[in-house]
Amino acid sequence: LCSAKGRSTQLVAFIDSSGRAFSCDAHGLPSARSQGEPLTGRFSIVGGETVEHVVMGADTQQYLIGSDAGYGFVGKCSDMISKAKAGKAFVSLPTAAKVIRPQPVTDVKTDWCLCISNEGRMLLFPLRDLPVLGKGKGNKLMNIPSAKAKTREEYLTVLTVVPENADVKVFAGKRGMTLTANDLTHYQGERGRRGNKLPRGLQRVDSIEIELPKAKN
Asked: Which helix or strand (DSSP H or E) is residue 150 part of?
């Protein structure tokens, strides 16, 4: 389902479908090739909820945290750590919303927050416009009507961090297109706006890739 890269000396955090965060020592988990062990044996996960994401990083590493209902904030890796078996409330989710995989932040002052909805709308705004929180719902990222979010008629399919001057490669089915840093200015706007429609044929986005700017000699 998901993976995280880190050191065996670090703690590993898991986020479930209700937005709760759980953690344990990475070196305490089974190693080598195996199915691992059931996390329900380590943590008190409420019946019906499932583990969705795993995160490893330095305590001070910042992440873009959000839900597909269009809300989010910037949090640290240490905010996801809890010694309690029942974990801790981390992401507050509106009705029917799902937690999106936390995205590492390079520089909160210069990075951009990129949102794409299932309707093919894309919005790019400065990441610094989001609050830095230890937990919560966060602020509105993209304007998705709450009624449509509840029925899952409209929701975010992509939420990620774009470093300054990076290009974004958008994939929809067999089609792909690179949006340069200049192209992306068309999608820039204030946090909480609707965003602009992607070109026809690219509105049902399956995945994206970030292409970092090449270092100048």
From this structure: helix 146-150
